[in-house]
Design brief:
Layout lengths: L19 H4 L22 H23 L9 H5 L2 H4 L1 H19 L9 H11 L2 H14 L4 E7 L5 E7 L14 E7 L6 H4 L3 H8 L5 H11 L1
Antiparallel strand pairs: 1-2, 1-3
Helix pairs in contact: 2-5, 6-7
The structure holds fe (ii) ion.
Fe (ii) ion binds next to helix 2.
Amino acid sequence: MAAVVSRQTLAGESDNLNKNDMENLQTKEFPALPYAYDALEPYIDAKTMEIHYDKHHRAYFNNYVNAVKGTAYENMSVETVFAEVSKAGDPIRNNGGGYYNHVFFWKNLGKGTAGPSPELSSAINQAFGSFEKFKEAFSTAAKTRFGSGWAWLYITADKKLAVASTPNQDNPLMDLSPVKGTPLLTIDVWEHAYYLKYQNKRPDYVEAFWNIVNWDYVNRLYKEAV
Ligand SMILES: [Fe+2]
């Protein structure tokens, strides 16, 4: 049985804000969940969190490690692999995406943060008209992704904010993705992310998500990216 992560939520904790963790993500060890399984209750229940992290996420990590073993990708960071993932094949694409996207998603979640920084708020207003319109666009992308996938707030090549969804375990860092840029915020809309608590009601899960966005982390990513 896996050890239960005992630390409490931690929006603002320095290790939860370190972007380098993502840039240097490799195959050495399965990253710890940055909070306890019940830290995001009642929005995400402890059982869902435990199965999501310790079964689903861990399986992507293990399968990715096996897929890159003995290849040129073995000692590259996952982000570097994504830049040429079209050549790497589906096992690396799907499991590398599953590995990376979940690490990113855990960092995106937390409690008690104030909201977008003045800089990010201003960029959101410029791109979407208002925070409410951004929220609506992001939520719509999450709710309307057919089947399994992810919705993203990301920065495009010309430094503008945009919202889109990707299928399966694809993400905006992958060379083959039509949605391309630097991710700031994501939501996992695979059924395994919400089915135990929300069953078929994905919109309720998407609505709950807004209570547990770790804006400190998103603000930090935005500041570093622009
Ligand atoms: Fe997931």
